[in-house]
Amino acid sequence: MTPKPLPSLIAVIDIGTHKTASLLGQVIDGKARMLSFSERRTDGVVKGTVTDLEKLTQCVHEVVNDIERGSGRAVEQVYLSLSGPAAEGERVKGFIAVPAHDGKVTAKDVADAIASAKRLEPPAGRSTLLYMRQPTMLDNRPVGNAVGMTGKRLEVNFWRVTMEEGNMRMRVGMVNGLSIRVRDFILASHAAACATASDADKQGGVLVIDMGAGTTDWILYYKEHILCAGSIPVGGEHLTNDLSVALRISRETAEDLKQRFGSALHRETDVNQTIWKDGDKGVGDQQFNRGTITQVLSLRYQETIEFVRKDVLRRLEQIFPGHAVRLDQNMIPSGVILTGGSANLADAAEAVQLVTGVSARVGVPDFENESLRKPEYAGVVGLMTAALADAPPAVARPRGFLAQLKALFRF
Amino acid sequence: MGLFDSLFGRRRDAFRGQADRDWRALVPQDVQRVPAGELGRKRVVRSKLPTVAAAFFLFVLGALIWWAVDESAAAAPAAKVRFQTDGFLSEAFVKKVIAAGPEGFARDVRAIKADLEADNQVVAADVRRRGDGTLEINLRERLAVAKIVSLPEKGTSMQVRLVAADGRTFAGVGYPEQAVRNLPEIQHFRSTGADDGLLIEGIEIAAPFLLTVRTTYPHLFKQWSAVSLRDCFGAQEDSPGSNLRVTVRPGTQPMDRPALVEIVFSTANWRNELILLGRINVDELLRRPGTTASAYVLKMSIQNRTNAASPIPEPRLVPVTTPVTTPVTTPLR
Amino acid sequence: MATPASILLVGLGGAGCAMVTRLSVQLPAEVSVALLDTDARALAAGGPGASLQLGRAQTRGMGTGGEAALGLASAEAEEPALRRLFTGIPVVVLVTGLGGGTGSGAAATVAGLAAETGATVLAFATMPFSHEGERRMRQANEAAVKLGQKCHGLVMVHNDLLLQQVAPDAPLSESFAAADAWVGGALRGLASAFAPGALIAVDPAALRSLLSTPGSPTLFAFGLGEGDGAAMKAARAAIECPLAHAPGAVAKVASLFVHVAGGTAMTSTEAFEAVAAVRTRFGGETSTILCARVEPALGDRIEVSVLGASLPAPKPPAKTKKGGKGEDPAQPIFEFATEESMRRGLFGGTPMTFIDGQDVDVPAYIRKAVRLPPAP
Lengths: 411, 333, 376
Known about the structure:
The structure holds 3 protein chains of 3 kinds. Chain A is of the alpha+beta class. Among the domains of chain A are: about 90-160, 2-Layer Sandwich (Dna Ligase, domain 1), CATH 3.30.1490; about 195-365, 2-Layer Sandwich (Nucleotidyltransferase, domain 5), CATH 3.30.420. In chain A, about 35% of the residues lie in helices and about 30% in strands. Chain A is built from 11 helices and 19 strands. Chain A has helices at about 55-70, 105-120, 165-175, 190-195, 200-205, 235-245, 250-260, 290-320, 350-355, 380-390, 400-410; strands at about 10-15, 20-30, 30-40, 45, 50, 75-80, 90-95, 125-135, 135-140, 140-145, 155-165, 180-185, 205-210, 215-220, 225-230, 275, 285-290, 335-340, 360. Chain A has a 5-stranded mixed sheet, sandwiched between helices. In chain A, a hairpin with a 4-residue loop joins strand 13 and strand 14. The radius of gyration of chain A is 23 Å and the shape is globular. In chain A, about 50% of the residues are buried. In chain B, about 35% of the residues lie in helices and about 20% in strands. The radius of gyration of chain B is 41 Å and the shape is elongated. By secondary structure, chain C is α/β, with parallel strands linked by helices. Chain C has helices at about 15-25, 40-45, 55-60, 70-75, 80-85, 100-115, 135-150, 160-165, 170-195, 205-210, 230-240, 270-280, 335-345, 365; strands at about 5-10, 30-35, 50-55, 90-95, 120-125, 155-160, 220-225, 255-260, 285-295, 300-310, 355, 360. The longest helix of chain C is centred in the middle third of the chain and has 23 residues, at about 170-195. The chains are: A alpha+beta, B alpha+beta, C alpha/beta. The interface between A and C is medium-sized, with 32 and 27 residues.
C-alpha cells in the first residue's frame, strides 16, 4: 500500500508529562517551514500515564486551538507522539524462502515477506500501532536492498510497537473529539533521534536517551535502522520528588532548586556549600546544603541511567540470543545522545559517561527557529522531521477562488 | 489471500489476523460527529465562519450591484398625481394607465400623454410634471352623444359602448348608470371592426346630428330614446328616402292626447328640419281635432314633399297603423 | 485483663508483636497489651499481656508464610474472641508490620472489628524495606489501603526512613529503636489524656472525636529535645520528623492534638511556645487540643507528640461508567485515587512500577539507604 502523499500542512502534537507542545509546519520543496508553535502545561498525566482524561483532553484542545489561531490555518490531521512504557515494542520477523531457482530476489518476494511479518498477531488485548523497518537479512547477512541479490532465505524485520487497545482508543478519541484525524503515530524516542542525531550517527550506531518529566525513552540505532527501543517510567518528576522529600520542601521549590543548583554528579566540594533558597536572606528564606541536593539528584539520575543501560542490554539479549552483548563504544561508536528536558541538568553528560562507560553528549534539536533549539523541544521538533521523512513529498493543492476568499475571512 | 479476499472482501465477524488488530482498523476515525467540548464547538464555528462570511460578502456585493444598476426604477414609485377631468374618468384609471406602461410613473411626460390619449375616451390629456415629481393631469373627455348596445361573441351580458360626436366609440369608463340611460341608442346600424375600432356606417351623419340636438335642443335630446339608421345607408345628400328615424320615449308625453312615437329627419337637411321642429308646437298639432289615431309619426324630412310646388317642406303627422314595436335591440349586421 | 484499661495496645503479626514486646517494658499504667499472631511459638515467647493465636485451624500455629489471604482467613476465624477482646476499650492502638501474611491479611479485619465494638482505632503500620522485593511491597500497599478504610487514624512508617535515622554504621536494632520511640511517644501522648493529674488536661472524648471518621488522613509526629530550650528543640524535632515528610504524608491538618511532656523544670510558656511552633507548621485551624504533663522521670527532656487529622478529601466527581453505587454511610467516602495520592504522593493513581524488585517511585536515596547530612 503506497503511503498517501503528504498534505501541504503538517501538524504534530507531543503530549508529555510536563508539557504538551504542538508544531504546525508547511511543506515547501520537501522541507517543513514552521507556521506556528504552541505549548501548554499538561494536566492529568503522571509518569507518562493518563490519570485524568478530561483535563488532558482540555489541554490538547487548547494547544490545537492556539496553533490554529497562531497560524490562521485549520488543522485537519495530526501526528501524535508515542512514549512511555504503555507503548511496548518488539521485533517481529517475516521470512520466505526465495522461490526463483537462481535465487534472485524480486520486489514481490520482499513484499510477501513483509506481509508475512505483518500477519503476526500482537499480544492479546493490544493493537498494533507502528511498524519500523529494520535491516533485511538475506541468508543471515544484513543487506541494504535485497532486490536483485541472490540468496535462499529472505528475512525482513520490523520493530513493532503495540499498545493496549483501550489506551489507544482513548488517545485517538481525545483527538477525534476536536474533529481532527490522527494521521499516524510516531515513536517519541525515534522523533527525538531524528531531531538530534545525524545520519552519520545513526549509520555507525547511537543510543538516544530522551529523558522527559515523566518517562525516559531510549532508542538504539545501528546501521541506520532502529535496533531496539524502550521506555522507563522514571523522569524529571522523580528527581524533583526526591528533592522535595529529602529537603522537606514543596515541589515548586524543589523544581527551582533542581534547575538552579542541581547536578547529576556529586562532588566532595559540594558538601560544604550552603545555598539560600530565595537568595535574599529575607524572611522565609531557607538554607540548604548543596551537597544534599547534588547527592539526592545524582543518586536518582545515575540510577535511572543504570536502569536504561540494563533495559538496553536486556533487549539486545532478546534480539541476539546466546550472544554476549556489551554496550560499549564498539557497539555504539557515536556514543549516547542525551536529550529531553532533564538533559538540562548540570553534568548530565558526564554522569551518563560515568554510568555507561560510553561517550555521551547532550543533543540539541536543529531547527530554524532559535527558541526551539533546546533539549526539551527535541520531541516536538523531531516529530516534524520524522513525519516528513516517512512519507513522500507533498503535492501542493491549488487554491481556488473560493478558498482564497475564505482565507480573507479567517480570524 | 488475493482472489479470495478481493471476491469476498472483509467480513467483520471473522478474525482475519493481524489486519484486524491494526489501530486504523479498530478505530474508524469519525471526525464528522459533533465535537466534544467547548473548544471543539468553537473550532467548528470558526472553521465554518469564513465560508459563511465569504458567502454573505458575495451576497451583499451582489445586492449592492443590483441595487445600483436598478437605481432608476427606484425613483418615486408612489408618485403623486393631481388629476382633473371634465368627464367621468377617475384618478385610478389614469394611474392604471400610467403604471401599465414601462417604467411606470418615471416615464417622461409625452409618453404618458400619448398613453392617455390612446384611449378613445380621452380627447386630450394635459400632462405636466411639477418640480417635486408630482404629475398634473387634466383630461378632456369625449362627449358621448349616443350609445350602442351589442352582444359580444364571447359574452353573455350586453356590452354598452358610447358613441362620441366624431363617431368614435369608447367604453365609457366611469359613466354613471343614469347618464348612460339618458343617451339615445343607435339602432339598426351596420358596422365594421370592434371595440375602439368600431366603425358604424352612417355615423358620420347621425353623430353630428345628435351632437347638435344635444347642445342646442337639450329638452328634445332628453326625450329621444333611440335613433334608427335603417334608412340611412347609402344615403347621399339629396337622395330621396334616406332618413334618420328617432324614437321618442313614451314616458315623456302627456296621456291625454295621442302619443308621438317617432320623428323622421332627412339625412340631407336635418339642420333646417331641426330649426323647423323648434318652431312648431307639436302638442298643439296633436290636439287638433281630427287626430284620432293613438300614435303618430312626425315626418320632418323633405322627402315628404307631397306638393312639388311648395318650396318649404311641411311637417306631417302620419298615424301609425302598425302597433308600436319596442325598439329592436339586435343590430342588423 | 482484670480491669478494663483505657488504651489497648495490640501487636499484630511478627513485626507488630516484636515491637509491642519491646515497648511493654515501660508503658503508662493506662495501657494494656495484647498480642495477635498465627505463629504459636512467637506468641509464647512474647512478653506479658494477653495473647491470642489466630487461625488455629488455618495455619496450625505455623504462621502464614507471607500469604495475606491466609492471614485474612485466620483473623476471620477468631472473630468472636477478638470482639471480646475489644469490647469496652475506648482506644485501640494497632501496631503491625505490613508486607507479610498475618500483618497484611488480618490488619483490616482486626481494625474493623475493633471499630465495630465502638473503639477508636489508631493504627501504626510499617511498610517493608525497598529491598524486600516487589511482592511484599505490593501486598503491603493493598493492605494499607484496606486498613486505612477501616481504622480511624493510620500512620505509615516506611522502614526505609528508619534507616535514615541512625548512623550508617549502627546496628540494625538501633533503627528499629527509632520506630519504637515514635510509637512509645504516641502511646504516652494518648495515655495522658486518660490519666489524671495533667498540667493541662484533655477530655478523652475530645481526643476520640479528633479521630472520628474512618479513613481520614492522619498526621503523626514526635520530637524530643533536652537541655536549654528543650521545648523549642522538641518542637523543631517534631516538625522535621520523617514521619511527617514521607512521600505522600499529609502536611496540614484541620484538627490537631499536641501533647507536651516534660520534667519539673518545664514552664507553661515553653509549652505554649512549642505548641505555637507546631501549629504554624501543621495547621490545626479547626481545633487544637493541648495536653501538657509533668513527668518527673523525664528530667530536663521535653517530648512533643503531635496527632492530627483532617476531614477526608471530598469525593472527586464520579467518572465511573457503572451506575452510581449505593453509598453506605459507614463506608469511607474516599475514592481509591485520592487515598493513593496521599500515600504515594505525586504518583498516586498510576500503577506502581517495580524495577529489579524495587518501587522506583520511592526516592532513590531512601532505597539506597544513603544518609543525608543534616540541614544547616
